[in-house]
Amino acid sequence: xxxxxxxxxxxxxxxxxxxxxxxxxxxxxxxxxxxxxxxxxxxxxxxxxxxxxxxxxxxxxxxxxxxxxxxxxxxxxxxxxxxxxxxxxxxxxxxxxxxxxxxxxxxxxxxxxxxxxxxxxxxxxxxxxxxxxxxxxxxxxxxxxxxxxxxxxxxxxxxxxxxxxxxxxxxxxxxxxxxxxxxxxxxxxxxxxxxxxxxxxxxxxxxxxxxxxxxxxxxxxxxxxxxxxxxxxxxxxxxxxxxxxxxxxxxxxxxxxxxxxxxxxxxxxxxxxxxxxxxxxxxxxxxxxxxxxxxxxxxxxxxxxxxxxxxxxxxxxxxxxxxxxxx
Length: 327
Description:
Blueprint: E1 3-7, H1 12-23, E2 27-32, E3 47-49, H2 55-65, E4 69-72, H3 79-84, H4 86-106, E5 111-117, H5 140-159, E6 162-168, E7 170-172, H6 190-199, E8 205-208, E9 220-221, E10 223-225, H7 226-241, E11 247-251, E12 257-258, H8 259-270, E13 276-279, E14 288-289, H9 295-300, H10 309-321
Parallel strand pairs: 1-2, 1-4, 2-3, 4-5, 5-6, 6-11, 7-10, 8-13, 9-14
Antiparallel strand pairs: 9-12
Helix pairs in contact: 1-7, 2-4, 4-5, 6-8, 8-10
């Protein structure tokens, strides 16, 4: 059974990736500093605690487990924080990734699946976003991910490192079996914030901006189920291990929902009212981000099967009602 090093494997997306990797016969080795991840989420392979900035620790883990590839999820990812503290994002996301790539090359582990973001595209209303779209990130989060993509290209040219890069849109939902799910502290993602408001864990959902140039005035996003997302990562891993070249893929559904539409569907799925207030726009938020790409379907055979909005909300609600990692 081949080992795969999963950075950020104790986090939301990484833990779901570990579950699917284990199901497919790999041993996911989680590398996480547990600053935002959960030790309880590491259920499908060993946990190696460490920071991406710690080259000696990374060298030790590569030597111990000899992974055939890396899935790189570990990063800071909050837009508001990135606007307030850009240096934190450049230091952690870019600096940590540089250390990781240097350690991987030294260990002769040259296949990497990288978690990027649609935030690299920035504000491009009316444009069908595919992998060739212009990049103009609005904040240090998107800019740091774009810089890592450039870094991967340079390491590919110099060291024969092969990278599959996934730029994905808004990830939602939870493992239908309930083993792992979404849990952030503090929580900032729309659907779990809605569920917290429904359940009284917060007094209300704040709608950040109602004057966007959209049909109902709220910003629009493309939502993808976390399980569909990580299925694509395994397909990308197989591409690399079978000798395929590096490639960039968007992961989305080609359908956008406004904040008000997500609230409406959440009320329908849960049978509960969402208390809400309205506030100003948040700096760094784009009006509309929706994928127009079918490259992952054409080249990887990937198809999202759980990414209808009601299913994502229902899976998240089931996880939430079970108490998450506190349950």
